[in-house]
Write a structure and sequence with these properties.
The chain has about 425 residues and is α+β, with helices and mostly antiparallel strands. The strands form three sheets. Strands 4, 5, 6, 7, 8, 9 and 10 form a seven-stranded antiparallel sheet that branches. α7 runs antiparallel to α8 and α9 crosses α11. It is globular and about 90 Å long.
Length: about 425
């Protein structure tokens, strides 16, 4: 093992260091792809860093981590940040794009500097949009394992904020940043928000299905008339950090076809009525039947569940969804009942694959109950009546896995809807 690793472990015997070698593909000067062997070190059991796992690559990374450890950092509970080296540093997300590229370039090179009065003290605040690893929290965020892409991230650094304990410091930090970030949004159109740690965690699959490598030769594709609104919903879901909102983005793709499914059913039934051989003789009776069809399809709570089930029956393949669940190690999550702790228990039923009918029914009830809980509406389901979703760490962790399922459902609907 390298000497700097041995020196590091001698100074910090409680920290676990696991060496890992992998192969990456890089482009050489001739434009050809080459294999490059890369050595990384997975670091766990780091003092004061709340069970984080870091991925370090060299001696400079270890020196930087050692400096952070010596400062005795303290991490916040609800969002990514904490007290580091006497200052407060918090990861924040850029929600919108800069309209002025010169303004973006300026702030990427230099932080936005702010002075704000809070509790009879003047705080110095810096918002770093670029060179995030110059800050200690930016370095940790970039090296953390299990955190989604750091694109559109920024760092807020607060000096002069004093509190009795970490809980009070976190509360004060939240209040100060809420005030600053909304004022910046209203004044300059730059939209920033704190990054909740639970929302940033990436789903961890024990056996993910590997993607094929991009071929060097020309790729032949068939033109597909994808619906632009659905692609936008799907991409919005990719961009959103807050998991309840991400779930709703993917649900919008299902919702897009709900009214279309009702329209198809109504059109088919009305056509059957009009083409009945004895329509001319029993027109009043048939008109009454037609009115019942319209009434049934416009009954809100009942119709929503029926419409969703129809969408699933038309666009989903039970076997393919089941294979996705198995390949991504989601059986333990999807094929069992869950009880989420909100203001009262929210019960989420298990997904069943024993028949097409049970698959569509259980998937409908499962997804729709979560959707209604997130938007605080009443799904009119058995025990799950008007249970607003509570974003506790346990519930967010459940939702992180559930989003893998609804994302695949949404993707499949987009693909199959063009046929």
């Amino acid at each position: 093992m390298e000497k700097f690793i041995q020196t590091f472990q001698e100074k910090h015997p409680g920290i676990q260091v696991e060496k890992e070698t992998s192969v990456e593909y890089v482009m050489n000067e001739e434009g050809e792809e080459e294999e490059l062997e890369v050595t990384i070190y997975n670091i766990t059991a780091i003092p004061n860093l709340g069970g984080l796992t870091l991925c370090l690559k060299g001696e400079n990374d270890f020196k930087r981590l050692e400096k952070i450890i010596d400062s005795k950092p303290a991490l916040f509970k609800d969002f990514l940040g904490g007290k580091v080296g006497g200052n407060v540093e918090v990861v924040i997300s850029r929600v919108n794009r800069f309209q002025n590229p010169l303004l973006l370039q300026r702030f990427l090179l230099k932080p936005i500097k702010i002075a704000i009065g809070y509790k009879s003290k003047t705080l110095a605040v810096e918002i770093h949009l670029g060179f995030l690893q110059k800050t200690e929290t930016g370095f940790l965020a970039a090296k953390m394992i299990g955190i989604r892409s750091q694109r559109n991230r920024a760092i807020a650094k607060i000096s002069g904020l004093v509190a009795k304990n970490l809980v009070e410091l976190e509360s004060d930090t939240r209040l100060v940043l809420r005030s600053i970030l909304f004022d910046i949004e209203c004044s300059y159109g730059i939209v920033l928000e704190t990054a909740n740690l639970e929302n940033l965690k990436a789903p961890i699959n024990r056996s993910p299905v590997p993607r094929p490598r991009l071929p060097k030769d020309e790729i032949t594709l068939l033109y597909k008339p994808y619906t632009p609104e659905l692609i936008e919903y799907f991409h919005t879901g990719e961009r959103v950090d807050y998991l309840p909102f991400k779930f709703i983005c993917y649900f919008h793709i299902i919702e897009y076809f709900m009214d279309k499914s009702a329209h198809s059913v109504v059109a088919k039934k009305i056509k059957q009525i009009i083409l009945s051989p004895d329509f001319h003789a029993r027109s009043s009776e048939y008109v009454s039947d037609a009115i019942k069809v319209f009434k049934t399809e416009t009954e809100k709570f009942m119709a929503d569940k029926i419409k969703i089930s129809r969408v699933f029956a038309e666009y989903l393949d039970k076997e393919k969804i089941q294979r996705f669940v198995e390949d991504n190690d989601l059986q333990g999550h999807c094929e069992k009942d869950h009880t989420l702790k909100c203001n009262k228990d929210l019960k989420v039923i298990a997904l069943k694959f024993d028949s097409n009918n049970s698959f569509c029914e259980t998937l409908t009830r499962r997804i729709y109950s979560i959707r209604c809980s997130i938007v605080h509406s009443n799904p009119d389901f058995d025990e799950t009546k008007a249970v607003p979703f509570s974003p506790t760490p346990a519930n967010i962790d459940f939702l992180r896995r559930e989003i893998e399922l609804i994302k695949e459902v949404a993707r499949t609907i987009i693909v199959n809807s063009i046929v």
